[in-house]
Amino acid sequence: MNTILGAAAFLFIMILVLAFYLFNKLQIISALRKTVEHLSKTVRELDYQAKMIIQGDMELKLYQEEVEDKLNKLTLLKNLIISSLHILDKEKLFLQIDEKTINDLGFKKGLIVTTDFEEKVNVGFERNEIENIKDFILHKKLLVQSLPLISADTEGTKELFTALSTRDFLIAPVKAREKVYAIFILANMLIPIDVRRAEKEIFSIICMYLGQCLDNIQLFEELYNARDDLEKKVKERTNELVRSLREIETISRAKTDFISGVSHELRTPLTSVKGFSSLLVAEKFGKLPEEAKKRLQTINENVDKLVDMVNTLLDIARIESGKTEVKIAPADIAKSIHDVGEFLSPQMQAKGIKLIFDTPETLQVYMDKNLIERVFINLLGNAVKFTPRGGTIKISANVNNNQVIISVADTGYGIEKENLEKVFQEFFRVDNDINAEVKGTGLGLSLVKRIIEMHKEKIWAESELGKGSTFYFTLQLAKETNI
Ligand code: ADP
Q1: pTM of the prediction?
Q2: Using one digit for the tens of pLDDT, what is the confidence trace for 86-101?
Q3: Cα(469)–Cα(386) distance, rounded to whole angstroms?
Q4: What CATH number has the domain spanning 221-324?
């Protein structure tokens, strides 16, 4: 009995141990199952992520390829711009579109024909293909010229891709000044894929750029032609002027010769008339009736005037023909001024005119002494003639750097502004009441001007009506010679 009980107890214990063991195992199995489930979920996620990475990588690669492609095309555009920037000739411009450019655009063949069917560029097209293209352009003129870009997707192009036996082509107009100048055709892509947006975009840009270049070239040609025209006109006008100048020179020479000849011819009889009239007035041939003497005095005065005129005319003619020799050397102008003042003092005294000198004691200038003294005689003589009684005349010499400005100022009747330059013309005398009374030939200032110009110096006048006139001329200061 005990044995049975012992066996039963043992069995019970064993069962208990087994149950415990089983329970333990079941728990381990459950934990393992959970782990397996978790692992398989992780594996699934990893698989999904790997797929995502591969897809992303592929997209990235495609994107990179696209970017590279665009970059290449931009480089092509940049190179084209740089190489054509200074081109001012249409033919040279189209030379830039060569096989490399066509290939860089992604195509094997390229053709540019003008609207008059002049072939500017042909890369790879056969003769019959070109004829087909020309036919197409002719028949679809409106379509080709009005659309900015034509591809196989454009309606009405079927006959062209049948003729070219390819669907990958692009056509665009090259416009200059809003008008179609040429048509650009690309065909057969290097890599056989459909023509993409990138190719279309870059092709459109290049066609627009070529149009812009043509605009610039046309503008340059117009400018160049305008300049050419202008140059031609300037040349023609210059020739005309030279001709006129020669004619004027010939006329002037003839005039000088004429004046010189006539003056010479007049001088001898005038001298004789003067001699006789002086003797007659001096009653060397016997007493004259009062009336006859008066008339003879007028004749004598007029002969003086004529002699003066003939002499001045001869002087002007000599200067104009270059026969007068100018001896420019350092000389004391202050002395010349005083000498001439002295010489004319009787006339001044007769009119009660006061003469003021405003000059240094000595002043060396470059001049032809005799000619400049004639200038003073004329200027001072005029000042006396055109200054009323009791007036003042002032002769000044002012040094300014190397230049000496000499002026003869009077308090006379003055000269109107519009006559200030005319007084230097031959035979010009102001048409006024004073000149009706004052004697003159209108040649004095003309001679003065020529003498100053022979010195390569300037002369001018300033005046105010009723207040007086000032005549200025310049000479060059001479360095001290007597040190
Ligand atoms: P002329 O004195 O013999 O008439 P000029 O050639 O010396 O000839 O002068 C031309 C004209 O200029 C004069 O007739 C006169 O009208 C004007 N003129 C010259 N000098 C003066 C002056 N100092 N004041 C006013 N008028 C002058």
Answers
A1: 0.54
A2: 888 889 999 999 999 9
A3: 9
A4: 1.10.287.130
